[in-house]
Write a structure and sequence with these properties.
single chain, 244 residues, mainly beta, Jelly Rolls, ten-stranded antiparallel β-sheet, nine-stranded antiparallel β-sheet, 19 strands, 0% helix, 51% strand
Amino acid sequence: MSHPSAARSVHLWFDLPKNVECVCNEVRVTDSQKGTYFCVIGFSRGYSGIQELYDGRKMAIFSVWDSQTNDDPSKDKRVQVTYSGEGVEVSRFGNEGTGGKSMMPWEWEVDEPVQFKLEAKKVDDLWTAYACYIKNSASEWFHMATMKTITDGELLNGVYSFVEDFRRDGASHCEIRSAKFGDCCYMQQDCHAKCNQARFTADNTPTLNINAGLCGNKFYLTTGGSTQNTSTPLNGLIKYPENE
């Protein structure tokens, strides 16, 4: 088998109700490498998280996809950015779908928590607005951006986290990337609850040096390097103990 160009992408799919109004989650990066993205809250319409660029700069990112799947949707059907915070750069992206992207410098550190919050609100029967907030232990919530897209009334669905190696230089698969996630909490009408289980998946890269499981009260994901799949089999369900 030929060597992969990148470490395998690994995911946690959280067991949440459909169409929740708000999701909060936290990441603590334990091993990072240049060219790594740690998605803290992904959902069916976009994703948010932190990344380390090729040059070592640390960033926060929040993106929302257009409702159409072609590479050049008409302007009236594109994502619309209705708010962006100070210092946030807003642009459009392509390739893996199209949509709106917001980025800003965020000097996160290994083993320090970074929290994300996503809020979804129906604008009308066609459009939904998604607002992204970020904070660390020493800051208040910072409103990165709000973007609206055509959803036909959908709120937050398909919530997940992942670790991705986007350097893909043929050597990056030899490096370990890992992070802890949780508590993942959600709000739906008057119900506020914590997610107690998640499913472990990965992309189609044919390598086995991946792992996931529980570390205390946090879910964790690890990929690349000397990682061994000793905790949770691929597609396995990770659950908090019943007394948690």
